[in-house]
Amino acid sequence: MKNVLITMAILSFTLMSCSSQKQTKTVTLGPNPFITHMYTADPSGHVWKDGRLYVYSSHDIDPPRGCDLMDRYHVFSTNDMVHWKDHGEILNSSQVPWGRKDGGFMWAPDCAYKNGIYYFYFPHPSGDDWNKTWKVGVATSKHPAKDFKVQGYIEGLGDAFAMIDPCVFVDDDGQAYFYYGGGGRCAAAKLKDNMVEIAEPLQFMEGLKDFHEAAWVHKRNGIYYLSYADNHSENRKGANRLNYATSDSPMGPWKYQGIYLEPTGCDTSHGSIVEYKGEWYALYHNSSISGQGNLRSVCVDKLYYNPDGTIQVVKQTK
Q1: Does the structure show a pLDDT above 70 at 24?
Q2: Residue 285's beta-bridge partner residues?
């Protein structure tokens, strides 16, 4: 009987230890920035059906001319948050038939998946007066990181002035929502099932504080989060921060909650929030490699939530 009790005690301790280990298991990230062989910005993170985390990014051209020369997109992926694969360039401005003749201005993109097709959304001007002629292009592929072909652009968006940085959020019921904005305006609408047309007139998002650009929407525990860059500056230079607001609806109205990412050394800030293998991550860019705010590099750090659903300020690691 004594031996049986000892065996049961050992087994119980072992199970408790395994349970404790499971609860405390965590992922150790690699160094930041995690892409160092080229300059990258505006990371859009998604986990697709193959179980990998994919990051869609814009590309800063060296030497830069402001952000005018950005004209191509790359995709990177990982299955362990340490080792990243560069899938190469998936699209450049010369492949956009309706784009401005001088190219460039391929700014922050996003990607969505529905019914076997990957939809890649990107902003690009159609005329020389670039800031008044923005369109949101759509390219499609049956693969997450190759063979994208431009299908056209989303029509019916109205006043295009400074309206950039598309984001597409697909809710649990399969309904897709389109967001974009700039110059103090953030707008959204449901998308049709074809993922290339809006199903209703755009609505401007209410409740955001000091919105600048870089809209991103994610959902956790029934709460919708809209994050974005503000207009913050330091010493008369841009030093945008990433803010967020919450709602019980993907169309708002939104309740402003605060800042979750402080300035990163760049004039601009742009990020995405994604869950991967049970942990949450903040993707963003900084200028730690170049020392120049328009030669940026993508980074990732862990994101933590408080019990009430608010987000803790990200600890930026190097």
Answers
A1: no
A2: 298
Give the pairing type, strands 149-153 and 164-170: unpaired
Choose the catalytic residue: 42, 71, 110, 267: 42
274-306 pLDDT tens trace: 999 999 999 999 999 999 989 999 999 999 999
Q: Which of 71, 165, 213, 267 is catalytic?
A: 213
**CB-based contacts of 282, cutoff 8 Å, min separation 6:** 242, 260, 261, 271, 272, 273, 300, 301, 302, 303, 314
- CB-CB contact of 216 with 226 (8 Å): yes
Q: Rounded to 10 degrees, what is the CA torsion of 225, 229, 230, 233?
A: 150
Q: What is the pLDDT of residue 25?
A: 56
Contact present, 265 and 295 (Cβ < 8 Å): no
Verify whether residue 200 is a known catalytic residue: no
The reported pTM is 0.91
The confidence score (pLDDT) of residue 9 equals 41
- The sign of the dihedral angle between the CA atoms of 66, 67, 71, 76 is positive
Catalytic-residue membership of 213: yes
- For residues 43 and 299, what is the distance between their CA atoms, to the nearest angstrom? 8
From the list 192, 219, 216, 193, the residue with the least C-alpha distance to 205 is 216
69-105 pLDDT, tens per residue?
Answer: 999 999 999 999 999 999 999 999 999 999 999 999 9
Distance CA 155, CA 270 (A): 25
